[in-house]
Amino acid sequence: MTFINSSTPLAERMRPQSLEDFVGQKHLLDKGKPLRTMIEKGELHSMILWGPPGSGKTTLAYLIAKYTKANFVSFSAVTSGVADIRKVISDAQQYQKMFNQSTVLFVDEIHRFNKAQQDAFLPYVEQGKIILIGATTENPSFEVTSPLLSRCRVYVLNQLTPDEIALIIKRAISAPQGLKDFNVIISKQAINYIINLSQGDARVALNLLELATKATEPDKTNRRRILIKTIEEIALRKILLYDKSGEEHYNLISALHKSLRDSDVDAALYWLARMIESGEDPLYIARRLVRFAVEDIGDANYLALVIAIAAKEAVEFIGRPEGDLALAQAVVYLAQAPKSNRIYKAYELARKDALESLTEPVPLHLRNPVTKLMKDLGYGKGYKYAHDFPNAKVNQEHFPPSLKGRKYYYPYPKKKVN
Question: If DSSP codes are grouped into helix, strand and coil, which group holds residue 55?
């Protein structure tokens, strides 16, 4: 059977039908792990599956029902209310009477239910009339009511690793129900690009793969070679300009910015006057001066940002033409100030890692254990409180594992080696 013309999304077609096909969550589903043992024995209990998007919460709930031969009913907290809950529970009780089967009630995004809606589950969960499996991307300590939380076990699902996402992609390419008939050819670099864009979300990865496949024309041998460029176009986000457009507008602000950077006070004043007298919004200029203060002066002169923001406030307070002088005063100060782009460079390095590296969870020792559940899960364990150490200096890791030892900020430019 082929699914090439099916309207069913690839992510749904590739949903695992067995625990052996399930990718990730080895801490829960490896042989011998408590949840795996419970599923294989057909033992059911209500639970909350807490994990990031695309980590397998819905699939795991489905497999639990399948392995335990339970009736599986799914609905979303986004579109359902108390009346829907009561209807589902009534149907579950009838199903139990007719077929002697339990019902697994899967509630996606259970954190979106309010207290009254969550409380509606309580008597039925407590009496065992339904097996509730709630899925949430939010901390259940805050988003699930205490009475309901106390009647459910919480299982934490981890973000899928790059290797796990790669495996899911490769399976989809070769699977009959996936993209096998499309004869997809994809490089390791293109797969890695999808992995970075998906940030551990299997659904996003499969959606990108499917869209890129459909956007690629087959070659003479009927193969579709997926290019990084195609994936980029699929994932492209529109960036809207917040101000008026026009080449001269950008030419003038560029001239002002570069004159300031080169410490040319007179040229900076000239370009400022050109912009103001051409009808440019003074607040736009003020915003650019604030940007210059942090981007090109930074910690070389800590007052630069203060002066720039003061000019912005003066323009807002007194308007034109008096506010023009506040901008001129800021321009003269910024042009004469010592220059440093070390903060700008440091942030760009950090931003690059934030955008391109795997979005790893915050290390447990840096999290605050504000609830018992969080403490039991290891939040805050091993954290060293800086004020308990000499000079409030403490040696402990603050990066996620893959970025350990990263350095972004260099107060002075690196010395060139001859």
Answer: coil
Q: Find the domain containing 67 and state its range.
A: 24-156
User: 245-279 burial, b for 16+ CB within 10 Å, e for fewer?
Assistant: eeeebeebbebbbebbbeeeeebbbebbeebbeee
Contact 51, 159 (CB under 8 A): yes
Predicted TM-score (pTM) of this structure: 0.72
H-helix or E-strand spanning residue 47: strand 47-50
Residue 263 pLDDT level (bands cut at 50, 70, 90)? very high
Domain assignment present for 172: yes
* Domain co-membership, 167 together with 276: no
Contact 172, 206 (CB under 8 A): yes
Cβ burial 350-389 (10 Å sphere, 16+ → b, else e)? eeeeeeeebebeebeebbebebebbeebebeeebeeeeee
Asked if residue 265 and residue 221 are part of one domain, the reply reads no
Q: Which two tokens stand for residue 115?
A: 């207290």
152 and 47 in one domain?
yes
- Final residue belonging to a domain, choices 211, 235, 259: 235
Instruction: Round the average pLDDT of the chain to a whole number and report it.
Output: 87
Contact 278, 252 (CB under 8 A): yes
Establish if 12 belongs to a structural domain.
no
CB 230 within 8 A of CB 215: yes
Q: What is the CATH number of the domain that holds 53?
A: 3.40.50.300
| Rounded CA separation 77/112 (Å) | 6
269 assigned to some structural domain: yes
Q: How many domains does the chain have?
A: 4
Q: Which of 336, 360, 395 is the last residue of a domain?
A: 336
- Backbone torsions φ then ψ of 186, nearest 5 degrees: -140, 135
Distance CA 130, CA 124 (A): 6
Q: Which positions ≥6 away from 409 have C-beta within 8 Å?
A: 342, 343, 346
**Residue partners of 35: CB distance under 8 A and separation at least 6:** 28, 29, 155
Assess whether pLDDT exceeds 90 at residue 184.
yes
